[in-house]
Structures are given as C-alpha cells and as structure tokens.
Amino acid sequence: MTPDDLLEEFRAAGALLEGHFILSSGLHSAVFLQKMAIFSDPVRTARVCAGLASVIRDRYGAVDLVVSPAIGGIVPGYETARALGARAIFVERDPGGPFQLRRGFSIPAGSRAVMVEDIVTTGLSSRECLAALRDQPGEVVGAACLIDRSGGRADLGAPLVALATLDIPNYPADQLPPDLAAIPAVKPGSRATTPG
Question: 124 a known binding residue?
Fold first, then answer.
C-alpha cells in the first residue's frame, strides 16, 4: 500500500475532514484524520494495517510483539500484529497516571517488539508509550504509525516508520492564521483538552 493508497482509504471512508479542529494534542488544524471511520470497517482496517505491517517488516525485520497505547492504538495494533504474525499487547494508564503494561503483559527477554500508533502529530502518546516499555527485558526495535502528520519532525526518542508522512500545519490557539480563526473550532478527537 502506498501513501496515496492510504489517503484514498481515508477519503473513501469519509475520514479526511477539512474545517477547524482542535486535535488531541491541543493544537488547531484545518485537517482532521478521523481514524475511527477507518477502524469501524474491519475489511478496510485489515487492508491498511497489512500495508503498515509490510513497512514494519521492511524497516525492522521480524517482530514478536506489537505494543500500542490504549485506547486509540489497540485496533491498529491488533490488526498490524495479525498481519505480522505477532502478538498484540497494549499499555494503558490509571486516570492521571503514566502508561504502563498491565493485565500480565510484558516484553520477554529475547523478543523483538514494535510500538504501533494510528496517527502521530506531536508524538506525545508515542513517547509516553515507549517510556512505559524501557525497563522491559525484550527489545523495542522502534515505532510505526499509519500516518505521521508531523512531516517527519515528531521526535519519539526511537526510530519511526510511517505508511504515509504528511506535513499538515498545526497551530497553538494563540497563533491561528486568520482564515482558520474565522471558522468555529470543533474537537472530534478523544483526549480531553480545553478549547482555546
């Protein structure tokens, strides 16, 4: 699957939205990628995650585990793991706390794991997920995502491979361009932020 193929999947699913959006990072953007419109379709999800699995194999080789941040990363993590023939586990947080492996999940010594995200904007969730894995005995070889909307600038502290890399401008609330500021903002994402 090429980056253009992935974007066509988003368009066909009605998941490539234009307007004024407050992202889960708190930044504002004229473009929102509504990944749940992709993930609500099992066939489409399997197709895009198989594409990501191919990119992971090319970059990192064989992996035993896919680790994703809950909640948004669980579906693409699971489907990507299935395409890789790997196990899927996830990190989650107690309210207000850091991500951690729970439910008996671990990265055993000798295993190779990749962290899989859906969409990377600033890389915050990915960095937090990777931090939760640092003390595991197995090796975390890197990270992967369907779309890196930072244009390749997000620093995860680990290698990142994306099925598509886009350079979509994002703005702090106090630095909006006039055309974006003229449109009422909506918050379609999952992480609570204060509109501004």
Answer: yes
Tell me whether residue 107 is annotated as binding: no
Read off the pLDDT of residues 72-97 as tens digits, 9 standing for 90 and up.
899 999 999 999 999 999 999 988 88
65 is known to lie in a ligand binding site: no
Q: Is the pLDDT of residue 195 over 60?
A: no
Say if residue 122 carries a ligand binding annotation: yes
The answer to whether 119 and 146 are in contact (CB under 8 A) is yes
Q: Is 74 annotated to bind ligand?
A: no
DSSP annotation of 5 reads H
Query: Does the annotation flag 80 for ligand binding?
Result: no
Neighbouring C-beta atoms of residue 127, cutoff 10 Å? 19
Q: How far is Cα 24 from Cα 190, in angstroms, rounded to an integer?
A: 6
Q: Is 194 annotated in some ligand binding site? A: no
pTM, two decimals, is 0.88
CATH for the 3-181 domain, from 3.40.50.2020, 3.30.10.20, 3.90.580.10, 3.10.20.70: 3.40.50.2020
Q: Which element (helix H / strand E) includes 143?
A: strand 139-148
Ligand-binding annotation for 79, yes or no, is: no
Is residue 40 marked as binding? no
pLDDT grade for 178, boundaries at 50, 70 and 90: very high
